[in-house]
Specification:
CATH class of the largest domain in chain A: Alpha Beta
Helix content of chain B: 25-40%
Strand content of chain A: 15-25%
Strand content of chain B: 25-35%
Helix content of chain A: 25-40%
Largest interface: A-C, 54 and 56 residues
Order of helices and strands of chain B: EHEHEEEHHHHHHEEHEEEEEEEHH
CATH superfamily of the largest domain in chain A: Beta-grasp domain
Strand order of the largest sheet of chain B: 4-5-10-6-7
CATH topology of the largest domain in chain A: Ubiquitin-like (UB roll)
Chains: A alpha+beta, B alpha+beta, C alpha+beta
CATH class of the largest domain in chain B: Alpha Beta
CATH topology of the largest domain in chain B: Uridine Diphospho-n-acetylenolpyruvylglucosamine Reductase, domain 3
Structural class of chain A: alpha+beta
Distance between the termini of chain B: 38 Å
Number of strands of chain B: 14
Strand order of the largest sheet of chain A: 2-1-5-3-4
Number of helices of chain A: 5
Largest sheet of chain B: 5 strands, antiparallel
Number of strands of chain A: 5
Oligomer: heterotrimer
Radius of gyration of chain B: 18 Å
């Protein structure tokens, strides 16, 4: 195998900005975002796609960036927590998470936010049960979850009012 | 951490078939493969990315069967109108596989080929009498689920074969899928289905033993939950001992049968 | 300005949350200085074995590998750490004592190269008998896990914790007991002889747990020019600094340890963990070295002590406790870490917040060939409370009393001593009990099984704390504190206190935390920050105001008695208010300068009597059990936070729900399981933590604020108490529902099914 074949140059759109980088095939999307692009808002924890900490969206679909190849985002759109706020104005989910105390240490939060974005795009008016079902694959060790459910409900109702789904 | 490997990205099925083999593994969502590679259980030299091969992500229905391409994700199956109308049980099963990211990325083909013994899909497809289609550079064949599933992480697929589609005969039987799940994967799963008055009833029991098993009977009175439980060889783990899992099999078979008899469908 | 008085006691939004929701908040793992090398640890594949050979040639030839460090390279250093007993080898020396112990450190230009290099290190072992649990380690013919006896640290607050060698030990008669604690008073034997009822339980097993702070341990170290700088996931950066200074024989002033936001702590990031490894990597290469563990490695770095507890209690006919006797054995793993202190606290806390006239409690912490155990939220209290509270439940049943009534008859009253000579209880547990009873009983249903639990923890640790407040010329305020923000909300609480004390808007207060070049803080643990760091901060604010008043007297040429400190500044006689900034500017004669107020707290005054405060745990659960499967559904969770004063009520509720949820994890799901030399479930797939769908159906987090703490505005610490009695409450409820007495948690579905069906606890 030549050095060349062990990686490739990928061109991808991350939070609306096109970037091109040479990455190794063995690089995960999480490593690419954190180490190559410096987008450290996406965290890593279990690295077995179970905890949800590294959740990001690829072509609007949620993935565990710990078990997704960086080369596989070539030609695709990636969304991370850094892309949620518009300037100084927080995304309704971010605002609701702060208001409902839906985080403490914050390490799981970007994953919860990205999964919640995916959920509300699919289902702008989820029931409590649907929220719990969709977010059950994300672990939070601090809050006991109840405030997260409340935050998603609050954000969903505000986004519906603003027609901003 | 992943080792080093090359990646091929064919756009035509024929090209993919020429590429895959013992050390050159096909992948789609990678939800199973990359975990195995991280644990050094698989150390391929090359990966073949199938995502650009469009024909693998089709869902088609004919008069006699529902054909689901190997690259259709759990989420797509769960949300697909054709699947819901023709094999509603599969919709409800795929809506509850893994977590929402696994459902969004993981495919039916990948799930089956990995042959994780606690796979929800294998159990459900066994109840639905599904078969799987393979292609290779030199030929093609079709296997039933029992012919295909040989053991934990072990199938009849040859290294150069690609699972291209899953076929479910129509009209598909209808019924319920119940599982007991304490951790990431179920400890016991039971699919109970029926097709019509003159057709045998089918109960598939999965996740609990090395491969899913199927029990059929002329009617529901022929399904003896205690006997099924006694005949199962559960694999004990942290979620349950042999005797507890046997007990769960009996409980779930009884519940599933009662639910189907009460007219519950697609749960 | 008077509305600023509401800065404390109101649910202000936590300032750190804004940075955390945008992804801009920096955690240790996000910090990678330029030129950083990456390290990977080669770990032992044996539980107890002599290292016969390490071959690093192949690893050193791996492209990108810069160095492979092993124990023999550390000969010129003090190559061990441990704040109580310095028994912990940085790299295994001569032998390994547990599966997963660091044997070599590979340092490379990239993480990939470090990983490939680590895979190329060859280590050969010669197995020794592995002692995988206390029974094996305490057996007569058991080999020693530690052949050497390590002298205790000299720090006065730990000296009592560290085992002084007995004459037998000095003479070489050693065993695997790492530490022993015994306490007692009264005439226990006489009380048992006279008792109306004696109830025995045990051994009751509390499981080996993993805190699972979601950011695994990591550190980046930079050693150059005789100075060491470390950024790490340390709850106690000052404690880590002490260990690092000893390793490299550096003065404390030449070692800097910073702890940015922590991705969870829960006690598991107390004391030194990976910092020495990263530091020796940098020392060996002369470049910054970053070491990030994965979750499996983190589990093999620190877990919580499991325990087997036997209890015997004696009662009068009316249900009054007359004596209690406890025996606790903690599995502390291969190295002491903080287990001696966990043991001491377990012994202090096991008999509960009850009036017990005669007590005998003995605890032993045992070395085994397992992952080292140390602090975890609750700190010894949950281990003892499980057996102690279950035993009280059994007594209640035999006496014909309900769970609430037996506690009404025995709970200590406000001010009453639990530990003789120590601070009396600064909580009203009877009032808390009635709150709990009202909440649970008013929502009970036909299938409710209600269990409750009470604990009292001598909390706050040793009261040494300092703080600085720097008033800026523009009127803004910079607070420096050594307390770490690990999610508990200290940044926000400290800002609230400073804004309140100085009478300035909350937005004008900035907080800089947890950096040893700033003011000293002993630890961030034992629920102490609000109380002790809060008191130090109040004093710093008072000092700053005093200095400004003196400057104002000089600037305005009036006697100091004419200066009145008011919100945000001073009033000079009957003239208009002058802000802090203006006083500073006038005094320096330029728009420049600042005033620093310093606050010092030691074991004196209000914090003379130990413990600084009691942290009580008051919880109840209402369970429904599926008779077919044994699955427990939590219908109600009720908690009372007896916190004296809630600086931020939403934050207190958040801490309590979080602590209760972690407690439910240990009660229902979580347990690390050894099978042979290694864990069967060192990952989050099989180590089952609470999930969103496990949420109790009804949650009532109550706050009791009676102003009875020594902290600011009558506050006491929170955040741990609610975890402590949860397992006991769950086990008590299961006993009611099944009519059988659990002897261990977690009460997994199978265990409950076995209880219900009279099957042996473990079986095929």
């Amino acid at each position: 195998m030549s050095e060349q074949e062990l990686g490739r140059t990928v061109t991808t759109t991350v939070n609306g900005t096109e970037v091109s980088r040479y990455v190794l095939n063995r690089s995960t999307l999480a490593q690419f975002l954190r180490d190559d692009l410096g987008l450290t808002g996406t965290k890593l924890s279990c690295e077995l796609q179970v905890c949800g900490v590294c959740s990001v969206l690829v072509d609007r679909s949620p993935v565990s960036a710990c078990t997704y190849l960086a080369v596989d985002v070539d030609g695709r759109q990636v969304e991370t927590v850094e892309g949620l706020a518009q300037g100084d104005s927080l995304h309704p989910l971010q605002q609701a998470f702060v208001e409902e105390f839906a985080l403490q240490c914050g390490f799981c939060t970007s994953g919860f936010l990205m999964m919640s974005v995916a959920l509300l795009r699919k289902n702008p008016d989820p029931s409590e049960e649907q929220i719990k079902e969709y977010l059950d694959g994300n672990i939070c060790r601090c809050t006991g979850y109840a405030p997260i459910v409340e935050a998603v409900q609050l954000a969903a109702s505000r986004m519906r009012e603003e027609g901003n789904v | 951490m992943l080792g080093s490997f090359t990646v091929s990205r064919p756009t035509e099925l024929e090209d993919a078939l020429r590429l895959i083999g013992e050390d050159s593994l096909a992948y789609w969502g990678g939800t199973e493969l990359f975990l195995a590679m991280k644990m050094q259980l698989l150390v391929p030299d090359n990966l073949v990315d199938l995502k650009a091969i469009r024909q693998l992500s089709d869902v088609r229905r004919t008069d006699s069967e529902l054909v689901i391409g190997a690259g259709v994700t759990h989420e797509q199956i769960a949300e697909d109108k054709t699947v819901r109308e023709s094999a509603g049980l599969l919709s409800s099963v795929t809506a509850r596989v893994g977590n929402s990211r696994v459902r969004a990325q993981g495919t039916i083909g990948g799930n089956l080929c990995f042959a994780e013994p606690r796979s929800d899909l294998a159990t459900a497809l066994l109840a639905l009498d599904a078969s799987v289609d393979f292609r290779s550079a030199t030929g093609q064949r079709s296997l039933t689920i029992p012919e295909f599933m040989l053991g934990p992480y072990w199938t009849a697929r040859e290294p150069e074969e690609l699972l291209v589609a899953v076929r479910i005969p129509l009209p598909a039987p209808a019924g319920v899928y119940l599982k007991f799940q304490f951790t990431e994967r179920p400890s016991v799963a039971v699919a109970a289905v029926e097709s019509g008055a003159d057709q045998p009833v089918r109960v598939a029991i999965g996740a609990v033993s090395e491969i899913p098993i199927l029990v059929t009977a002329d009617d529901w009175s022929g399904i003896d939950a205690a006997a099924i439980a006694a005949g199962i060889e559960p694999v004990p783990d942290l979620t349950g001992s042999v005797s507890y899992k046997r007990h769960l099999v009996e409980v779930l078979v009884n519940k599933a049968v009662a639910a189907v008899q009460a007219g519950v469908r697609d749960v | 300005m008077s509305e600023q008085r509401s800065h404390v006691g109101s649910p202000v939004l936590r300032r750190d949350l804004f940075a955390k929701v945008t992804g801009s908040a920096k955690y240790t793992v996000d910090i990678t200085p330029s030129g950083t090398l990456h390290a990977k640890v080669v770990r032992s594949s044996h539980a107890h074995a002599r290292i016969t050979r390490i071959n690093r040639e192949q690893a050193l030839r791996t492209p990108g590998v810069v160095a492979v460090v092993i124990a023999e390279d550390l000969k010129d250093l003090f190559s061990r750490f441990g704040h109580i007993v310095p028994d912990h080898c940085i790299l295994a020396t001569g032998k390994v004592r547990y599966y997963g112990e660091p044997v070599a450190l590979v340092v490379a230009e990239t993480l990939f190269a470090a990983e490939d290099g680590a895979a190329a290190v060859e280590v050969e072992y010669e197995d020794l008998v592995a002692l995988m649990n206390p029974a094996e380690a305490l057996a007569q013919d058991a080999p020693l896990i530690h052949e050497e006896f390590y002298r205790a640290a000299t720090d006065e607050s730990f000296a009592a914790m560290a085992a002084a060698p007995t004459p037998e030990e000095e003479a070489g008669e050693r065993d695997n007991v790492a530490h022993t604690v015994e306490i007692g008073w009264g005439d226990v034997d006489a009380a048992f002889a006279d008792a109306h009822l004696v109830v025995e339980d045990g051994p009751v097993h509390y499981p080996m747990l993993y805190a699972y702070a979601m950011e695994p341990y990591n550190a980046v170290a930079d050693f150059h020019d005789g100075q060491l700088s470390v950024v790490s996931t340390a709850q106690h950066p000052f404690m880590v600094r002490t260990d690092l200074a000893r390793i490299f024989d550096l003065p404390l002033s030449r070692v800097r340890v910073e702890a940015p936001y922590l991705g969870g702590g829960y006690g598991s990031k107390s004391y030194t963990k990976v910092e020495p490894l990263a530091a020796v990597g940098s020392w060996a290469t002369g470049r910054p070295v970053k070491l990030v563990l994965d979750v499996e490695e983190a589990i093999y770095t620190t877990r919580a002590d499991s325990a087997d507890v036997t209890v015997r209690s004696a009662f009068d006919a009316d249900g009054t406790i007359i004596a209690r006797e406890f025996d606790l054995v903690l599995d502390s793993g291969a190295y002491a870490d903080n287990s001696p202190l966990v043991l001491a606290k377990a012994v202090n806390r096991c008999f509960g917040p009850y009036r017990v006239p005669n007590v005998r409690a003995r605890g032993r912490s045992v070395y085994t060939n397992t992952s080292p155990a140390s602090s975890y939220r609750g700190f010894g209290a949950p281990q003892g409370a499980l057996a102690g509270e279950l035993n009280l439940e059994r007594a209640a049943r035999e006496l014909g009393l309900d769970s609430f009534e037996i506690r009404r008859r025995n709970l200590v009253r406000p001010g009453e001593e639990i530990l003789p000579g120590k601070r009396g209880i600064d909580a009203d547990l009877l009032a808390d009990l009635e709150m709990l009873s009202d909440s649970l009983n008013s929502h009970a249903s036909a299938d409710s099984a209600i269990g409750i639990g009470f604990t009292a923890s001598d909390a706050g640790a040793f009261p040494v704390s300092t703080a600085q407040v720097r008033l800026q010329v523009d009127g803004s305020v910079l607070v420096l504190s050594g307390s770490t923000e690990m999610g508990q909300g200290s940044e926000s609480a400290l800002a609230q206190i400073a804004a309140h004390e100085l009478g300035v808007p909350l937005e004008s207060v900035s907080i800089a935390q947890s950096d040893t070049i700033g003011p000293y803080e002993r630890t961030t643990g034992a629920s102490r920050t609000t109380t002790l760091a809060g008191l130090a901060l109040q004093r710093a604010c008072t000092d700053a105001k005093q200095k400004v008043a003196e400057m104002a007297a000089e600037v305005f040429g009036v006697p100091a008695t004419d200066i009145e400190s008011i919100e945000g500044g001073v009033r000079v006689g009957d003239k208009s208010p002058v802000g802090f900034g203006e006083v500073i500017s006038r005094w320096f004669g330029a728009a420049a300068g600042e005033v620093t107020g310093v606050g010092l707290l030691r074991r004196d005054g209000v914090t003379k009597k130990m413990p600084p405060f009691w942290e009580v745990g008051v919880v109840g659960v209402d369970l429904a059990i599926d008779p077919d499967t044994g699955v427990i559904r939590v219908q109600q969770l009720a908690t009372v936070a007896d916190v004296g004063f809630a600086i931020n009520p939403r934050a207190v509720e958040g801490q309590d729900l979080g602590a209760a949820t972690q407690g439910l994890g240990g009660a229902l799901f979580e347990e690390l399981v050894y099978d042979g030399p290694q864990l069967t479930n060192p990952n989050i797939v099989e180590y089952r933590v609470p999930r969103m769908q496990d949420l109790p159906e009804r949650i009532d987090t109550m706050i009791a604020a009676r102003g009875d703490g020594v902290g600011p505005y009558g506050a006491k610490g929170a955040g741990e108490g609610t975890l402590n009695p949860i397992a006991a409450a769950v086990a008590g409820a299961v006993a009611k529902a099944t009519g059988k007495w659990p002897t261990r948690v977690p009460l997994t579905p199978e265990r409950v099914w076995r209880l219900m069906n009279d099957l042996p606890e473990d079986g095929d």
